[in-house]
Amino acid sequence: MVKIVSILSAALFATLANAATVYTGDILSGHKVISNLDVTDIPANAVTKLWLRVTKDVVGQSYHVPIIVARGPTDGNRLLLNSALHGEELNGIRVVQRFFADIDVSKLKGVVVGVPGSNINGMYEGQRYYLNKYDSGSLTNLNREFPGNITNRAAGKKFAATLWSGIYGNNNYTAGVDYHTQSLTTQFPNFVYADLRVPYVYRMTELTGADIIKVDTGESAVGSLEIVLDQFGIPAITYELGAPKRWQKDQIQRGYDFAFRLMTDLNMYPATTDTEKIATYEAQKKKSYYGNEFVSTYSTQGGYVELYTKVNDRVTKDQLVGRLFNVWGDKVEDYYPKFDGVILSIGDNPLHEPGAQIVETIHNSTDPACFNGC
């Protein structure tokens, strides 16, 4: 297991120890409101829906984050399924909703905690980040703020700290999955970020059957939920499900099927007997591409981009993948991948300003410094 980074003080380890679920006494839309979750005192052999009370908005009303807890009749491992830390990344919400609607809790050994939409503020605002509304406004990327500090000035940073202390950091999970998508005007395939140095994480990537897996140390994502869970000894992955601001049935299905496979692998749930699902997964797994470096190709001028590639395409560095036109339809510039590899992401809006992503290409670098990801 990777060593805990020095910024995680001894005091923060205390959040991994269970404390009783704290009920506020309020009921919201028929479900109890809590300020802290402890799965050991949630009813067994049941699915329980709760609201976590977090920070307050500009009129002093509390934000409430939905939580669903499935606890089986017997104890076992504990799984976290999180979604929408970025408010425009919605596919994972439907994964979590469907998962808890379909699970037969009588067959479950252990506990699964699901969060069907954690960045309530971002969803209200229709954007990726948490919007702090003081001064002229500022943005907080919740997925760079864990484990957080409740004394921080910014409301978004307080929000992240409350999520950590109330759900993520205090239930001794066996494994964690954080569902995301690509950001607005871009799209991913079925894609995973994973630190393969962490025990069990490689197995988790296998179970996804994802199109592409980025071998990644997390150095560019310090404070992300995946990386901080890893640092606390909880194997975790960031699972990217396609494009933002939509529900893509194929991506949702893959995220859903993975969650059940993962439970089975953790000895929490019986394996599926659906031969079609098994065959589909085996075919997907055979095609999974592991890469350790990606680099984007950006526009240098504004205009209209026509793409000649799509995600998952194998490309060479001398292959034309896009062309920029001016308002009259005249060619302005051509775009090429930075190296031979696979198209990981594309910009899917024809309107591009200078500096916008055209494509992102992933490959396996032979540089020893990139062995674990760069």
Automatic annotation (TrEMBL):
Gene3D superfamilies: Zn peptidases. Keywords: Hydrolase, Metal-binding, Signal, Zinc. Residues 76-263 form the Succinylglutamate desuccinylase/Aspartoacylase catalytic domain. It comes from the Eukaryota. The keyword Hydrolase applies. Residues 1-19 form the signal peptide. One of its GO terms (molecular function) is hydrolase activity, acting on carbon-nitrogen (but not peptide) bonds, in linear amides. Pfam families: AstE_AspA_cat (PF24827). InterPro entries: AstE_AspA_cat (IPR055438), N-alpha-Ac-DABA-like (IPR043795), N-alpha-Ac-DABA_deacetylase (IPR053138). Its cofactor is Zn(2+). This is Succinylglutamate desuccinylase/Aspartoacylase catalytic domain-containing protein. It comes from Furculomyces boomerangus.
